[in-house]
Specification:
By secondary structure, the protein is mainly alpha-helical. It has helices spanning about 15-30, 30-40, 45-70. It has 2 domains: about 10-40; about 45-75. Helix content is about 55%, strand content about 0%. The radius of gyration is 27 Å and the shape is elongated. The model has no long low-confidence stretch (mean pLDDT about 90).
Amino acid sequence: MAVNAEVQKTDGENALTLMRRFSKRVQGTGLITRMRSRRYHARIKSREVRRKQTLKVIKRRETVQELIKMGKMMERTTRGPRRR
């Protein structure tokens, strides 16, 4: 989808005001916000990938708990209420 934003220089108008008018026209088309949303869009991970990551996190938590029980690792202390 192509969006054209065109401005014509009028008599007695300097380049700065012309650029300002052009940028306002481009903002009015919504082109910049649409491109930014496309740029920072994160793909949805597949079920298998999410499952593997979850299993990895569970395994890591179990090993940390074992290390804490054996005294090889210090338990984290939380400061204040836990945030989510």
